[in-house]
From TrEMBL, chain A:
<dbReference type="InterPro" id="IPR005475">
    <property type="entry name" value="Transketolase-like_Pyr-bd"/>
</dbReference>
<dbReference type="InterPro" id="IPR033248">
    <property type="entry name" value="Transketolase_C"/>
</dbReference>
<dbReference type="GO" id="GO:0016491">
    <property type="term" value="F:oxidoreductase activity"/>
</dbReference>
<dbReference type="Pfam" id="PF02780">
    <property type="entry name" value="Transketolase_C"/>
</dbReference>
<keyword id="KW-0670">Pyruvate</keyword>
<dbReference type="InterPro" id="IPR029061">
    <property type="entry name" value="THDP-binding"/>
</dbReference>
<keyword id="KW-0560">Oxidoreductase</keyword>
<dbReference type="InterPro" id="IPR009014">
    <property type="entry name" value="Transketo_C/PFOR_II"/>
</dbReference>
<protein>
    <submittedName>
        <fullName>Pyruvate dehydrogenase</fullName>
    </submittedName>
</protein>
<feature type="domain" description="Transketolase-like pyrimidine-binding">
    <location>
        <begin position="5"/>
        <end position="192"/>
    </location>
</feature>
<dbReference type="Pfam" id="PF02779">
    <property type="entry name" value="Transket_pyr"/>
</dbReference>
Length: 342, 337
């Protein structure tokens, strides 16, 4: 039987492999080991991050490489930028992507621009791992999906895996990439199991993955929305509508060719994104279709996204905040009209 | 006094010549940039370092290419003291292809990583975490190198001051934080914006040494720097040095400097750092007036040559717009090409 591990274990495994392969890889973040300088604490009892994603790394690699930081995001993310520029290959963990407010300058004005401002005479091989996503009852400041924010900034690469397999291969690619990568981990996916090979493998950036083939409608879904879209596709199939699900996997760079080729085939595009809808990855992909795929389209592009609100706490509200299979099915029905009645 | 005499005697003629040369280079470079900016040919913002030469030179007299520095928007002086090429710097300020950053950084982002110069920086307070990162590399790779973070009195009230110094202190990193207190953050006086008597006093909060020195006295800066650099190289952690100084020009070129008072005249004359060092070197018999005056003439010529080089240099080619964003590919809009 093929090996099944969780998304969280896949992320952990990628970091461990990279640290075995390259002494310059270090991990910095808040409680990534946990309990630094607590005399009675044995390393095997250390937290390994608030969600346990980095658990065990400090035992193998020690506290010189698994570095607990103060709660000072500007300080340690900024330090990771120049540690990268001066010869290390750091991974900085920004616990929640919502905390980017505390270190945006270090990412946006320093890390992302350093190479360009220096005329190409420096590189920043830094990976910022960060947790995102609603559905965890974590409320407005711990639930956002801010990948479009980073996609907007030149000099940053943006990665959003949807499966354990993709998480491991893309994280290894991120760590050994010579540019600044922001790697998004959906907190609701950590416990998801999937087939993951042992050993090292890398998934190149800018290669979208067709998670399901179909002829009638293209659904571009980001991160965990891939799974929501898969459920919608099952419903649609019952009524004879075959959806093709395209997982971009990286938003910067974006695999425009795979998206456009799929739209050319199906003539219809729905973009599913759990982030807020204005100036977002969803609007960006919709604009791509309008700009470069207009002749392929048989219907207007539809977007299924969160509303333009913060993420609510109340479970009853958060459930309707997120895109659901029903909403996707409805969007497809609207665009297929009577031709493909469900 | 005895310690001062010992240290003064410790400056060799070779070291003194290097220091005086670098101070002259900064002064004449900045005076020329001021002059040229007035003619309207230079693009963008320019912030001049003239008047503060003793600080960059005093610190960098202890550094080599393996040591890193982070800088500020007022970064030309740090670049020169760290050994950046004058021609490449001037061309960068002109936005020419031959600039140190191919004309893509400009005055506020001049960098030369090979020389350990991690860039002037357009963000006030931006340098603290960056210096910590360079210090972390030194510590992890056991290079024996140090990182020096130059910052202004304005940055001493920025949140990154706290995050950066605290982190350098808990990790015992080889970082030297050097405040260049020129009395004004843009047009806002230090005593208005900072709830402390001196920036050095803030070192107490991090349990690290802090001292204030006369930032117009290159010998005094050099001595303080020596103590801090030795501590850092010996693994004893960071130091905060406050250098009290004054900038000869405004916050930026074009600043009417209405906030400055009578003290300005004194700073430009009696308290001038280069005059002070000139007098010191001749009185101590380390160098002669003839030698120093000859250096002054030579440096003026070097700066003239840098201006000529910059003016004659080509502009960047249009395709350079899309280069150097990423290591692995060029960009064109959002797509990879």
């Amino acid at each position: 039987m093929t090996r099944q591990i969780t998304f969280s274990q896949a992320v952990n495994e990628a970091m461990a492999i990279s640290m075995r392969e390259d002494q310059d890889v270090i991990l910095l973040g808040e409680d990534v080991a946990g309990g630094a300088a607590v005399d009675h604490l044995q390393d095997e009892e250390a937290w390994g991050g608030v969600m346990g994603v980095t658990k065990g790394l400090v035992q193998e690699f020690g506290r010189d490489r698994i570095i607990d930081t103060p709660i000072a995001e500007a300080g340690y993310v900024g330090a990771a930028v120049t540690a990268a520029a001066t010869g290390m290959r750091p991974i900085a963990e920004l616990m929640f992507n919502d905390f980017i407010g505390s270190c945006l300058d270090e990412v946006m004005n320093q890390g992302a621009k350093l190479r360009y401002m220096f005329g190409g005479k420096a590189k920043v091989p830094l990976t910022i791992r960060t947790m995102h996503g609603a559905g965890f009852r974590a409320a407005a400041q711990h639930s956002q999906s801010l990948y479009s924010f980073f996609t907007h900034i030149p000099g940053i690469k943006v990665v959003i895996p949807s499966t354990p397999y993709d998480a491991k291969g893309l994280l290894l690619e991120s760590i050994f990439d010579d540019d600044l990568v922001v790697f998004f981990e959906d907190k609701t996916l950590y416990t998801m199991k999937g087939e993951v090979p042992e050993g090292s493998y890398r998934i190149p950036f800018g290669k979208a993955d067709i998670k399901r083939s179909g002829e009638d409608v293209t659904i571009v879904a980001i991160g965990k929305m891939v799974h929501t879209a898969m459920k919608a596709a099952d419903e649609l199939a019952k009524n004879g509508v075959e959806a093709e699900i395209v997982d971009p996997r990286t938003l910067s760079p974006l695999d425009e060719d795979t998206i456009l080729t799929s739209v050319e085939k199906t003539g219809r595009l729905v973009v599913v994104d759990e982030a807020n809808p204005r100036c977002s990855a969803a609007t960006d992909i919709a604009a791509l279709a309008a700009d470069k795929g207009f002749d392929y389209l048989d219907a207007p592009v539809k977007m299924v996204t969160a509303p333009h609100t913060p993420v609510p706490f109340a479970p009853s509200l958060e459930d309707i905040y997120l895109p659901t299979p029903d909403k996707i099915v409805k969007a497809v029905q609207e665009m297929t009209g009577s031709e493909l009645v469900l | 006094m005895s310690q001062t005499q010992t240290n003064q005697a410790a400056i060799s003629k070779e070291e003194a010549a290097w220091m005086f040369q670098k101070m002259l280079e900064i002064r004449h470079f900045e005076d020329r940039v001021h002059e040229i900016f007035g003619t309207g040919v230079l693009p963008g913002f320019v912030h001049l370092y003239a008047g503060e030469e003793a600080i960059a030179v005093g610190l960098c007299s202890h550094l080599d290419d393996n040591d890193y520095i982070t800088s500020t928007h007022r970064g030309h002086g740090h670049c020169i003291a760290k050994g950046c090429d004058l021609d490449g710097m001037m061309a960068e300020i002109y936005g020419k292809a031959t600039g140190l950053c191919k004309g893509k950084g400009g005055s506020m982002h001049i960098a030369d990583v090979e020389k350990g110069m991690l860039g002037a920086n357009g963000i006030v307070g931006g340098g603290f975490p960056l210096a910590v990162g360079a210090g972390l590399t030194h510590k992890l790779k056991k290079t024996g190198g140090v990182a020096v973070c130059f910052f202004g009195d304005g940055a001493n009230n920025h949140g990154t001051f706290h995050e950066g110094i605290n982190m350098a202190a808990i990790w015992n990193l080889p970082v030297i934080f050097v405040a260049e207190n020129n009395g004004f953050a843009e047009a806002t006086p230090f005593h208005y914006a900072s709830s402390c008597k001196s920036i050095a006093d803030r070192a107490i909060g991090y349990d690290i040494p802090g001292e204030t020195v006369d930032g117009k006295d290159v010998v005094a800066v050099r001595e303080a720097a020596q103590r801090a650099v030795e501590r850092a190289r010996n693994g004893e952690g960071p130091t905060l040095i406050e250098c009290v100084t004054y900038r000869n020009y405004g916050h930026f070129e074009g600043d009417a400097q209405t906030y400055k008072g009578e003290e300005k005249v004194k700073h430009l004359n009696d308290l001038d750092a280069i005059k002070k060092f000139y007098t010191y070197l001749t009185e101590q018999g380390i160098m002669t007036e003839e030698e120093l005056d000859k250096m002054d003439e030579d440096v003026r010529r070097d700066v003239d040559r840098a201006v000529e080089f910059a003016e004659k240099s080509p502009h960047p080619l249009p395709e350079q717009l899309l280069e150097d964003v990423y290591v692995s590919y060029k960009t064109d809009g959002g797509a990879v090409s």
